[in-house]
Amino acid sequence: MKFLIIRFSSIGDIVLTTPAIRCLRKQYPNAEIHFLTKKKFKAVTIANPYIDKFHYYDANFSKLKKELKSEHFDYIIDLHKNLRTLRLWFSLRSKWLSYQKLSIQKFLLTKLHIDVMPKKHITLRCLEALISLGVKDDGLGLDYFIPKEEEVALDKLPLSHRDGFGAIVIGASYYTKKLPDYKLIELCDKIAAPIILLGGKEDFDEGEKIVLGSKSKLILNACGKFSLNGSADLVKKSSWVISHDTGLQYIACAFQKPVIAIWGGTSPKLAVEPYYGEQNLALYKNFIVPDLPCQPCSNFGTKSCPKKHFKCMKNQDTTSIVKELEKML
Questions:
Q1: What's the per-residue H, E or C state across 259-294?
Q2: Residue 213 to residue 185: CA distance in whole angstroms
Q3: Which of 16, 127, 291, 329 has its CA 20 to 30 A from that of 139?
Q4: What are its GO biological-process terms (predicted)?
């Protein structure tokens, strides 16, 4: 039996599919499992031991189609479900399974603020796509695997951080998913512990502003200094994680870390809150500014606040965030 699982993007969404990959492998141990994603997200699954072969989309659809046709898959499991995967369905003509995307329900929630979303996490909907194959959830939550060569040695960290630290993920793909600089400085000032700031290269300057603006002398700006897997390893080595709605939040869940999830333009109502699996302790807390009729305003986040006030992030209570963190620990 040969399977192809498709999830093109992005980091967090790919991590959220990992229980489906693992459970398929465990319940079809002799099958050949292939995975298709965008080339720029190669690092997310490259070390996943449950995947036998990778395929990468890099803007050349004809080449991809030819490559996949030659594999003669028995089943294609579509965990992305967009026009591109529909084109593949017409081309490959294998047996096709897909998850319930809920595009209409998400539109109603974000544009009209009518909540008819089922109370079922996206990870469980991905697993439901495999029901006809007899695949069941093992309850073990998310996976993330780090190549040995990308692990971060403790001697690369300051002495102040080698005995333990917390991670604050300051990056996110869109403006409305991120706390403003001054709120992040306010948050850091209230935490009496070593902190590592995580994000991409594009977040480095913001990290420097936080380091220079904070009263704390225990902040390390690691934004852009390590690969994605290096940052994931710092999450793995951390004691706790505070994160916006972004990929490292779900990687933290995969490592069973206590998570404070801060929500702005997006919302856990979109069935994407931190996920740990039924067999694990779900140690997390969502922070959402209450009584905002405009929240959530988007499924993915936007480049600016549609209402121009950005209350969903500017009104976040950093004192309550730190108190909750102390309670969790």
A1: EEEECCCCCHHHCCCCCCCCCCCCCEEEECCCCCCC
A2: 6
A3: 329
A4: lipopolysaccharide core region biosynthetic process
**38 - beta bridge partners?**
57
Contact 249, 259 (CB under 8 A): yes
State pLDDT tens for residues 20-60: 999 999 999 999 999 999 999 999 999 999 999 999 999 99
3.30.470.10, 3.40.50.2000, 1.10.760.10, 3.20.20.70: CATH of 152-328: 3.40.50.2000
Q: Where along the chain do its domains lie?
A: 2-133, 152-328
Concatenated DSSP letters of 21-36: HHHHHHHSTTSEEEEE
Fold of the domain spanning 2-133: Rossmann fold (3.40.50)
Q: What angle is formed at CA 220 by the lines to CA 152 and CA 172, rounded to 5 degrees?
A: 85
pTM of the model: 0.96
